[in-house]
Design brief:
Helix 1 links the parallel strand 1 and strand 2. It is globular and about 55 Å long. The termini are far apart. By secondary structure, it is α/β, with parallel strands linked by helices. It has a seven-stranded parallel beta sheet, sandwiched between helices. It has a domain of about 180 residues: NAD(P)-binding Rossmann-like Domain (Rossmann fold, 3-Layer(aba) Sandwich), CATH 3.40.50.
Length: about 290
């Protein structure tokens, strides 16, 4: 027996998962959250979530337990994971055996790109969904605007926004809050089965233009700087990043360097019923938050 509105969210403790859980709770949905470790449950408990699956996404028995009684699943795959396809196949099998009605998959903008292994793996997952017999929906978001916050310390302290690819590469971006709003919509409405939605904000920006906007909003100079990729690689490995993740990210940076990554905002605008959040709106809101702290 399915519990009305009960949705399994995998990767629930990451930044995407937390945003999605907030949006679903705001719509009155009940959530079962899958997290890797019990320590990761704290921010979700604060939201009022009390149903957890704790452990490895590759665990077959856990997947069966997680999907038992669920009306839908929102699968957020782990970042840069060599087992991404195996994880998804495990969840798809469990969804089939448990009679889950909806499977919504958090993919990526342009998964067709073989030169970026983490994109290509998501395309393989999409293929599995096509043949699964499940009522799937696939979301393909662009790079998050919120990724900029990982550079905030050097931006504020040094006036430097440093990236390991060309500062003139154009990338479409999207606000995580807009993504979460769409996730809640497609999970809770009946009309999105078998859809694939490309989700992009209204602009494609280079790091050079991003630094210019930062300068305007912060009222002090910010310079975009291209970091040497070999230096970046050494630093990441020394800091403990897994070799697979480092190599995968280097291939992504090289692709960005050569081609950028651009999408179209029309689908996101249609789903939201409003204009997507702009980069300037994002910056203004984040700077206001920092000013309040």
């Amino acid at each position: 027996m399915h519990e009305p509105g009960k949705i399994l969210v995998t990767g629930a403790s990451g930044k995407t998962g937390i945003a999605v859980c907030k949006a679903l709770i705001a719509k009155g949905a009940r959530i079962r959250a899958w997290v890797r470790q019990e320590a990761y449950t704290s921010p979700l408990v604060v939201m009022g979530i009390d149903d957890f699956i704790i452990g490895d996404l590759l665990d077959d028995s856990l997947a069966e337990q997680a999907l038992r009684g669920m009306a839908a699943v929102y699968h957020i795959p782990p970042n840069m994971n060599p087992n991404e396809l195996r994880i998804a196949e495990n969840l798809i099998r469990a969804a089939q055996s448990q009679g889950v009605l909806r499977f919504v998959y958090h993919s990526v903008l342009h998964p067709q790109i073989e030169e970026m292994p983490h994109h290509w793996k998501k395309m393989r997952v999409e293929e599995r969904l096509f043949t699964s017999g499940l009522a799937y929906t696939i979301l393909q978001p662009a790079v998050y605007m919120q990724n900029l916050l990982g550079y905030w310390q050097s931006i504020q302290r040094d006036g430097v926004y440093g990236i390991p690819y060309s500062i003139d590469a154009l990338l479409s971006q999207v606000h995580l809050g807009d993504i979460a709003e769409v996730v809640a919509k497609v999970l809770l409405e009946e009309s999105h089965s078998y859809a694939i939605y490309e989700l992009c904000g209204p602009e494609a920006l280079s790091a050079r233009e991003t630094a210019h906007r930062l300068s305007q909003h912060l009222g002090k100079p910010v310079e975009a700087v291209e970091i040497d990729r070999e230096v970046w690689q050494r630093n990441m490995l020394a800091g403990g990043m897994p070799e697979y993740a480092v190599e995968t990210l280097l291939k992504m940076f090289l692709y960005y360097e050569k081609y950028g990554m651009r999408g179209n905002p029309n689908v996101l605008r249609m789903l939201l019923g409003r204009n997507p959040t702009t980069f300037d709106e994002f910056l203004a809101a984040e700077i206001h938050k920092f000013d309040q702290e």
